[in-house]
Amino acid sequence: MIIKNGLVFNENCVFEKKDIYIENNIIVDSIEKVTDKTEIDASGNYVIPGLIDTHIHGATGHDFCDKDAKGLISIAKYLKSNGITAFCPTSMTLKKELLKEIFNTATTDLPKDCANIVGIHMEGPFLSKEKKGAQDATFIVTPQVDMFKELNEACNGMIKIITMAPECDGGLEFIKEMSKTVSISLGHTTANYDMAKQAFDLGATRATHLFNAMPAFNHRDPSVVGAALDSENAFVELISDGIHIHPSMVRATFKMFTDDKVILISDAMMATGMENGSYELGGQKVTMKDKKATLADGTIAGSATNLFDCMRKAVSFGIPLESAIKACTKNPAVSINVFDKMGSISVGKLANLVILDKDLNIKNVI
Ligand SMILES: [Zn+2]
To answer: How far is the CA of 54 from the centre of ligand 1 (A)?
Structure first.
C-alpha cells in the first residue's frame, strides 16, 4: 500500500509532505519493496502515528476487569476505530486471584480490526487508602514483590506499568527491586516531595494521572509534581478530557515538563462510547452524565473520553498540535519500551497510521 501526498508527522515530530510505503504492515523505504501498490490519496490531510493509550480501563460497556475476552475485543475494536492503535488495558484494585484471571485475558489473540495490546497497566492494589480515588480500599495491600511476580507470570510477563504509592510499607524496597522489570508510576499516593524524589531516584519513571489522587503542587511541598519535574527520567500522565484537569493546568504542565515528558492518557472507563447512564468501575457504581463519570459521593471515577478526543481537547486548550500528537504517540511508546516498533512513522516500524482532515476528524485508520 502507498499513502500519497499526505502531510506526514515525521520522526522529528513535525509535518512534512511525503509518501509512505507499506509492505506486510511494515513501513518500508521505497516503492520497489511494495507488492500491493494500492494507493490512498491523503492530499490535504495529516498522517499521524496511531495513538497509544497507556492507561485505559474500558469502553463500549466493557471493562478489562470483567475478565471477559469478548469484552476486551469490543474495547480494542472501538479504540482502533477511534485512531488508537495500541493500548495497555488497566486494572483496578482487586483481589490477587481475580487479578490473575483478568490478566490472563490480555494474552488473548485479537482479531485484525482491533488495537494491539502492548502490555498491562496494573493500577493498584499497592496504593494509599487516603488517596484511593475510585479504587476500592477493601483490597488495597502493601507492596509485595512476590505478589507482583505471581501476577506477572499469570499473563506471561505482560505487566508494563504499575501504579503504586511509594510511602506504603515496603514501597521503596519494591521500587528498588522491580524498577528494571516494570515501569514504576507514582500515583494514588500521599507522598511528599522528599518521598517522591527518593522513589524517582530509586528507579520510578512515571507519575500516574498527574495532579489527580496525589497531594497538590504546593509552594512549600511540591509533592510528586515537583519531584517529577526535578527527575530527569520521569514521564507524567495527564488526563486532558477537560473534566479532570483545568485547561490552564494542561497548558502549565506542557510548559513545565515540555512535550518530551507529557503522556496524554484517557483513563477511560466502560461508559466511553456509550450513552449517559449507570455503569461500573472496579465493582463500584458509577454514573456517567455528559462525559463526567462519578461515584455516588461525587468522586470522579475515570473518564468517558477516548484518547483521540483527549488529544483534540488538548489542542482546543491551546497545546500545539505537534506536541499533543507526540504526547499520544512517541512518549507513551518510549515510556513502555516499544518505540522500536511503533509510536512514529519510521522505516521498519508497524504501519499503525491515522489519516485526519485539517479539522482533526478521522478519515482512515490503517
Ligand atoms: Zn485509572
So the answer is: 10
Ligand 1 geometric centre to CA of 58 (Å): 10
pLDDT of residue 292: 93
The string of pLDDT tens digits covering residues 59-101 is 999 999 999 999 999 999 999 999 999 999 999 999 999 999 9
At 102, list the grid cell: 483478568
Interacting residues of 361 by C-beta distance below 8 A, sequence separation 6+? none
The answer to whether the pTM exceeds 0.90 is yes
Query: Measured in angstroms, how far is the CA atom of residue 197 from the centroid of ligand 1?
Result: 22
Q: Is 267 annotated in the active site? A: yes
Domain segments of the chain as ranges: 2-46+358-365, 51-340
With a CB cutoff of 8 Å and minimum separation 6, the contacts of 340 are: 349
Query: Ligand 1 center to residue 267 CA distance, Å?
Result: 5
CA dihedral 29, 33, 38, 40 (to 10 degrees): 0
The architecture in CATH of the region 51-340 reads Alpha-Beta Barrel (3.20)
Q: Rounded to whole angstroms, how far apart are CA atoms 302 and 289? A: 13
Catalytic residue of the set 241, 259, 267, 309: 267
